[in-house]
Prior knowledge:
Layout: E1 8-19, E2 22-33, E3 37-41, H1 48-56, E4 61-70, E5 73-74, H2 80-85, E6 88-91, E7 98-102, H3 103-117, H4 125-139, E8 149-150, H5 156-170, E9 174-178, H6 186-199, E10 205-209, E11 223-228, E12 231-236, H7 238-247, H8 250-260
Parallel strand pairs: 3-10, 3-11, 6-9, 9-10
Antiparallel strand pairs: 1-2, 1-4, 4-5, 7-8, 11-12
Amino acid sequence: MIQENSEVILSVKDLTAEVDGVSILKGLNLEVKAGEIHAIMGPNGSGKSTFSKVLAGHPDYTVTGGEITYLGQNLLELEAEDRSRSGIFLAFQYPIEIPGVSNLDFLRVAYNSKRKFAGLDELDTFDFEDLVQQKLDVVQMNPAFLDRSVNEGFSGGEKKRNEILQMALLEPKLAILDETDSGLDIDALRIVSSGVNQLTTPDNAVVLITHYQRLLDYIVPDYVHVMEGGQIVTTGGKELALELEERGYTWIREEAEVAAR
């Protein structure tokens, strides 16, 4: 929900970035304030996932220009782990499996790492188990999943719910959800979306990256941005997503080409 005089969580100005020497982001601008939900849409290859990985500090992506400010500090000066500990959370389109590491241990180490970074005492195993049991309700997850290896043998919907469980525990200031709706059936989509809505507050912000308008029926954005050619070329409200559903992206591309002349 848009609020007047809200804290600016993320400010991106003229951002350019490349991967393997190929330019992907070509002057991207975006401002995200507390309490806001931003949806980023666009055709394949437009730079959406690249943007999410640049924000998270993925080492394969090189920023070649522009600036990113997070809570008033230069995000580009922070290593990936410090970005995470300071409140940036990235939910992956394709969550990886980590055989041999129990989900419970993984969650506990991540949670305590963030507490330690904030100067707080770590939770012992018993207190953490009590906490995680409470958070399971957010994504309607069976406690048995805590004893299994991270994402190993999980269905697509279970992996995405596990990502939102991580979000519930880490309570990020900025959550970036990269195609969280990908591969979900309608029931899993409702559960995941409900979890995101429960975790969205006036003090944090969410950036949704999606191809499909259907996600935005459940998580209603304040702004919808369309990326094309490594830039945000147009911004609107939820009605823009409905128009994209009806008309596709061709008209956006054509308008962008006209504006560039």
